Protein backbone atom coordinates (compact mmCIF):
# COMPACT_ATOMS: atom_id res chain seq x y z
CA UNK A 1 0.00 0.00 0.00
CA UNK A 2 1.33 3.46 -0.90
CA UNK A 3 1.97 6.06 1.77
CA UNK A 4 -0.94 8.24 0.63
CA UNK A 5 -3.39 5.37 1.12
CA UNK A 6 -1.86 4.43 4.49
CA UNK A 7 -2.27 7.93 5.93
CA UNK A 8 -5.81 8.25 4.59
CA UNK A 9 -6.81 4.88 6.02
CA UNK A 10 -5.25 5.58 9.42
CA UNK A 11 -6.93 8.99 9.61
CA UNK A 12 -10.31 7.48 8.79
CA UNK A 13 -9.82 4.65 11.31
CA UNK A 14 -9.06 7.27 13.97
CA UNK A 15 -12.19 9.24 13.01
CA UNK A 16 -10.21 12.40 12.32
CA UNK A 17 -10.88 15.06 9.72
CA UNK A 18 -7.99 16.50 7.74
CA UNK A 19 -8.20 19.64 9.90
CA UNK A 20 -8.08 17.61 13.11
CA UNK A 21 -5.10 15.55 11.96
CA UNK A 22 -3.30 18.70 10.83
CA UNK A 23 -3.77 20.26 14.26
CA UNK A 24 -2.39 17.20 16.05
CA UNK A 25 0.84 17.11 14.01
CA UNK A 26 1.27 20.88 13.66
CA UNK A 27 0.77 21.26 9.91
CA UNK A 28 -1.90 22.78 7.69
CA UNK A 29 -4.94 20.99 6.32
CA UNK A 30 -3.48 21.57 2.85
CA UNK A 31 -0.37 19.61 3.85
CA UNK A 32 -2.51 16.64 4.92
CA UNK A 33 -4.42 16.86 1.64
CA UNK A 34 -1.18 16.78 -0.35
CA UNK A 35 -0.03 13.67 1.55
CA UNK A 36 -3.28 11.90 0.81
CA UNK A 37 -3.17 12.91 -2.85
CA UNK A 38 0.36 11.59 -3.15
CA UNK A 39 1.81 14.99 -4.02
CA UNK A 40 4.19 15.05 -1.03
CA UNK A 41 5.18 12.93 1.96
CA UNK A 42 5.61 14.12 5.57
CA UNK A 43 9.07 15.18 6.67
CA UNK A 44 11.02 13.17 9.22
CA UNK A 45 9.79 15.01 12.31
CA UNK A 46 6.17 14.85 11.16
CA UNK A 47 6.53 11.13 10.43
CA UNK A 48 7.62 10.65 14.04
CA UNK A 49 4.53 12.50 15.27
CA UNK A 50 2.27 10.48 12.98
CA UNK A 51 3.95 7.28 14.13
CA UNK A 52 3.16 8.05 17.78
CA UNK A 53 -0.34 9.27 17.02
CA UNK A 54 -1.38 6.20 15.04
CA UNK A 55 0.89 3.74 16.91
CA UNK A 56 2.48 2.41 13.73
CA UNK A 57 6.09 2.43 12.55
CA UNK A 58 7.45 4.99 10.12
CA UNK A 59 8.09 2.10 7.78
CA UNK A 60 4.35 1.37 7.78
CA UNK A 61 3.53 5.04 7.19
CA UNK A 62 5.79 5.02 4.13
CA UNK A 63 4.07 1.98 2.69
CA UNK A 64 6.50 -0.63 4.10
CA UNK A 65 9.23 -0.13 1.47
CA UNK A 66 11.78 -2.24 3.39
CA UNK A 67 11.82 -5.55 5.24
CA UNK A 68 12.67 -4.80 8.84
CA UNK A 69 14.64 -7.23 11.01
CA UNK A 70 15.92 -6.94 14.56
CA UNK A 71 19.62 -6.03 14.48
CA UNK A 72 20.10 -8.05 17.63
CA UNK A 73 18.30 -11.37 17.19
CA UNK A 74 17.46 -11.22 13.47
CA UNK A 75 13.72 -11.79 13.72
CA UNK A 76 11.39 -10.11 11.20
CA UNK A 77 9.71 -6.97 12.54
CA UNK A 78 6.23 -5.60 12.19
CA UNK A 79 4.32 -2.97 14.14
CA UNK A 80 3.38 -5.49 16.83
CA UNK A 81 6.94 -6.70 17.47
CA UNK A 82 8.99 -3.52 16.94
CA UNK A 83 10.55 -1.97 20.04
CA UNK A 84 9.72 1.44 21.47
CA UNK A 85 11.60 4.23 23.20
CA UNK A 86 10.61 5.67 26.58
CA UNK A 87 8.57 8.40 24.86
CA UNK A 88 6.51 5.79 22.99
CA UNK A 89 8.22 6.28 19.64
CA UNK A 90 9.17 3.21 17.63
CA UNK A 91 12.80 2.08 17.40
CA UNK A 92 12.75 0.23 14.09
CA UNK A 93 16.15 -1.45 14.54
CA UNK A 94 15.17 -3.87 17.32
CA UNK A 95 12.36 -6.14 18.45
CA UNK A 96 10.52 -5.42 21.71
CA UNK A 97 12.14 -8.43 23.37
CA UNK A 98 15.71 -7.19 22.78
CA UNK A 99 15.05 -3.50 23.43
CA UNK A 100 12.29 -1.83 25.41
CA UNK A 101 11.63 1.58 26.96
CA UNK A 102 14.95 2.93 25.73
CA UNK A 103 17.12 0.10 27.09
CA UNK A 104 18.55 -3.14 25.78
CA UNK A 105 17.28 -6.14 27.68
CA UNK A 106 20.16 -8.47 26.86
CA UNK A 107 22.99 -9.00 29.32
CA UNK A 108 25.83 -8.06 26.97
CA UNK A 109 24.61 -4.48 26.57
CA UNK A 110 23.94 -4.06 30.27
CA UNK A 111 27.37 -5.41 31.11
CA UNK A 112 29.11 -2.79 29.00
CA UNK A 113 26.85 0.02 30.12
CA UNK A 114 28.03 -0.73 33.65
CA UNK A 115 31.67 -0.76 32.54
CA UNK A 116 31.62 2.66 31.02
CA UNK A 117 28.65 3.32 28.77
CA UNK A 118 28.43 3.68 25.02
CA UNK A 119 31.93 5.11 24.55
CA UNK A 120 33.66 2.16 26.20
CA UNK A 121 31.40 -0.25 24.38
CA UNK A 122 32.34 1.32 21.02
CA UNK A 123 36.02 1.06 21.92
CA UNK A 124 35.62 -2.63 22.70
CA UNK A 125 33.83 -3.26 19.40
CA UNK A 126 36.66 -1.53 17.55
CA UNK A 127 39.24 -3.73 19.25
CA UNK A 128 37.32 -6.87 18.33
CA UNK A 129 37.06 -5.74 14.70
CA UNK A 130 40.84 -5.22 14.60
CA UNK A 131 41.42 -8.69 16.08
CA UNK A 132 39.09 -10.35 13.56
CA UNK A 133 40.77 -8.58 10.64
CA UNK A 134 44.21 -9.53 11.97
CA UNK A 135 43.30 -13.21 11.55
CA UNK A 136 43.56 -12.72 7.76
CA UNK A 137 41.28 -15.64 6.96
CA UNK A 138 41.19 -16.43 3.24
CA UNK A 139 37.86 -15.43 1.70
CA UNK A 140 36.64 -13.51 4.76
CA UNK A 141 35.87 -9.87 3.83
CA UNK A 142 37.19 -7.01 5.94
CA UNK A 143 35.07 -6.62 9.06
CA UNK A 144 33.50 -3.17 9.30
CA UNK A 145 30.89 -3.58 12.04
CA UNK A 146 29.58 -5.94 14.71
CA UNK A 147 26.02 -6.38 15.94
CA UNK A 148 24.73 -7.74 19.21
CA UNK A 149 23.36 -11.25 18.60
CA UNK A 150 21.47 -13.66 20.79
CA UNK A 151 23.30 -16.91 21.53
CA UNK A 152 20.19 -18.94 20.73
CA UNK A 153 20.19 -17.41 17.24
CA UNK A 154 23.83 -18.19 16.35
CA UNK A 155 24.73 -21.20 18.52
CA UNK A 156 25.48 -23.72 15.75
CA UNK A 157 26.63 -27.30 16.33
CA UNK A 158 29.99 -28.28 14.79
CA UNK A 159 31.31 -31.75 14.07
CA UNK A 160 34.87 -32.22 15.37
CA UNK A 161 37.52 -34.44 13.69
CA UNK A 162 36.86 -37.12 16.33
CA UNK A 163 33.21 -37.27 15.25
CA UNK A 164 31.76 -35.50 18.28
CA UNK A 165 29.29 -32.63 17.73
CA UNK A 166 29.67 -29.62 20.02
CA UNK A 167 28.37 -26.12 20.53
CA UNK A 168 30.68 -23.35 21.73
CA UNK A 169 28.17 -20.68 22.71
CA UNK A 170 25.51 -20.20 25.38
CA UNK A 171 21.90 -19.92 24.20
CA UNK A 172 21.11 -17.54 27.06
CA UNK A 173 24.07 -15.20 26.46
CA UNK A 174 24.63 -12.49 23.86
CA UNK A 175 27.61 -11.89 21.60
CA UNK A 176 29.02 -9.42 19.13
CA UNK A 177 29.05 -10.81 15.62
CA UNK A 178 28.06 -10.56 11.98
CA UNK A 179 27.38 -12.55 8.82
CA UNK A 180 29.45 -11.93 5.68
CA UNK A 181 29.36 -13.34 2.18
CA UNK A 182 32.52 -15.21 1.12
CA UNK A 183 34.72 -13.19 -1.23
CA UNK A 184 35.01 -16.24 -3.51
CA UNK A 185 31.24 -16.38 -4.08
CA UNK A 186 29.19 -19.52 -3.71
CA UNK A 187 26.32 -20.21 -1.34
CA UNK A 188 28.28 -20.33 1.92
CA UNK A 189 28.66 -17.44 4.35
CA UNK A 190 31.07 -16.57 7.12
CA UNK A 191 29.70 -16.13 10.61
CA UNK A 192 31.73 -14.38 13.31
CA UNK A 193 31.05 -14.04 17.03
CA UNK A 194 33.00 -12.79 20.03
CA UNK A 195 32.86 -11.66 23.63
CA UNK A 196 35.48 -10.78 26.23
CA UNK A 197 36.96 -14.27 26.20
CA UNK A 198 37.14 -15.49 22.58
CA UNK A 199 36.81 -14.99 18.82
CA UNK A 200 34.87 -17.49 16.71
CA UNK A 201 34.77 -17.74 12.90
CA UNK A 202 32.73 -20.32 11.02
CA UNK A 203 31.17 -20.95 7.63
CA UNK A 204 27.73 -22.37 6.84
CA UNK A 205 25.19 -22.81 4.10
CA UNK A 206 21.64 -21.54 3.78
CA UNK A 207 19.87 -21.06 7.13
CA UNK A 208 22.97 -22.18 9.03
CA UNK A 209 23.17 -25.61 7.39
CA UNK A 210 26.39 -27.70 7.40
CA UNK A 211 28.37 -25.41 9.73
CA UNK A 212 32.15 -25.71 9.81
CA UNK A 213 34.34 -24.17 12.50
CA UNK A 214 37.24 -22.14 11.06
CA UNK A 215 38.72 -20.46 14.15
CA UNK A 216 38.04 -20.54 17.86
CA UNK A 217 40.62 -18.36 19.56
CA UNK A 218 40.93 -17.35 23.19
CA UNK A 219 41.58 -13.65 23.69
Helix/strand layout:
Layout: H1 3-13, H2 18-24, H3 29-37, H4 44-54, H5 58-61, E1 82-84, E2 90-95, E3 99-100, E4 103-104, H6 107-115, H7 117-134, E5 147-150, H8 151-154, E6 157-159, E7 165-167, E8 174-181, E9 189-194, E10 198-204, E11 212-218
Antiparallel strand pairs: 1-2, 3-4, 5-8, 6-7, 8-9, 9-10, 10-11
Helix pairs in contact: 2-3, 6-7
What does this structure look like?
This protein is an alpha+beta fold and 219 residues long. The chain has three domains: 1-66, lambda repressor-like DNA-binding domains (434 Repressor (Amino-terminal Domain)); 69-105, no CATH class; 107-218, no CATH class. It has eight helices and eleven strands. The strands form four sheets. Strands 5-8-9-10-11 form a five-stranded antiparallel beta sheet. A two-stranded antiparallel ribbon has the order 1-2. It has a two-stranded antiparallel ribbon with strand order 3-4. Helix 2 (18-24) packs across helix 3 and helix 6 (107-115) packs across helix 7. The longest helix has 18 residues, at 117-134. It starts with a helix and ends with a strand.
Radius of gyration: 22 Å
- In the predicted model, the low-confidence regions spanning at least 5 consecutive residues are none
The outline comes out as: elongated
Helix/strand order, N-terminal first: HHHHHEEEEHHEHEEEEEE
| DSSP summary: helix tally | 8
The total beta strand count reads 11
> How many structural domains are formed by the residues?
3
- Mean model confidence by pLDDT: 89
Main β-sheet: number of strands, strand sense, barrel status?
Answer: 5 strands, antiparallel
Helix/strand-derived class? alpha+beta
Q: What is the CA–CA distance across the termini?
A: 50 Å
Strand order across the biggest sheet? Answer: 5-8-9-10-11
The helix content, as a percent range, equals 25-40%
User: β content, as a range?
Assistant: 15-25%
Amino acid sequence: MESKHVILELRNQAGLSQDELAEKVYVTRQAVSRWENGETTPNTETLKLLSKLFDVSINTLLGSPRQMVCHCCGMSLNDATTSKEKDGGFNEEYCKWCYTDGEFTLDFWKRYANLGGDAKFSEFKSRLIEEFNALQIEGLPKIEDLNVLSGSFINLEYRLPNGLCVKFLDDDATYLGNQLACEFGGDRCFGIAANMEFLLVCTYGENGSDPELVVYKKR
